[in-house]
Design goal:
The chain has one domain: YbaK/aminoacyl-tRNA synthetase-associated domain (YbaK protein). It has 5 helices and 10 strands. The strands form 2 sheets. Strands 1, 2, 3, 5, 6, 7, 8 and 9 form an 8-stranded mixed beta sheet that branches. The N and C termini lie far apart (about 35 Å).
Length: about 160
């Protein structure tokens, strides 16, 4: 995995999970949920943004609806550990992704993954694919399953 680009790691994880590779590049960028929604032509709520927290030395990746904020207290209760926000350098070191391109799968170190139930209301969601200009589309229940996520109500409207 170490010789691959971050987008290639996501592509390999999708293929390994038996999912069709739908990674698409948007040169204008998909760094924020609003940018990604504008690029792909969907509602901001359909963007499955990956927010990284720390639980001690382990990464906790929350796959949240683009319109929700993550409630850290709810998250801590779900995983049974205290969580803090992770900084950009630590995120890159542990996940292999830069902020704005953190994918829900293909991490260098396997994280705890928590999936925002609000995303299940959509037929398709879009997630970062390893860079601030690459995304992929997938049914939310499939994304939750292949990312090994815990389903939870951890979001609050932004």
């Amino acid at each position: 995995m170490s010789g691959q680009s971050s987008v290639d790691r996501v592509r390999a994880a999708l293929v390994a999970a038996g999912v069709v590779d739908s990674i698409t590049a948007f040169p204008a960028g998909t760094r924020t949920a609003a940018d990604a929604a504008a690029a792909v032509g969907c509602a901001v709520a359909q963007i499955a943004k990956s927010i990284v927290f720390r639980a001690g030395a382990q990464a906790v990746v929350v796959i949240a609806s683009g319109v929700n904020r993550v409630d850290a207290a709810k998250l801590a209760a779900v995983i049974g550990q205290k969580v803090t926000r992770a900084d950009a350098d630590w995120i890159r070191e542990v996940t292999g992704f830069a902020i704005g391109g953190v994918a829900p799968l293909g991490h260098l170190t396997p994280p705890i993954v928590v999936f925002d139930r609000d995303l299940l209301g959509f037929a398709v969601v879009w997630a970062a694919a390893g860079s601030p200009s690459h995304v992929f589309a997938l049914a939310p229940d499939v994304l939750a399953r292949i990312s090994g996520a815990i389903l939870a109500d951890i979001g609050t409207p932004a």
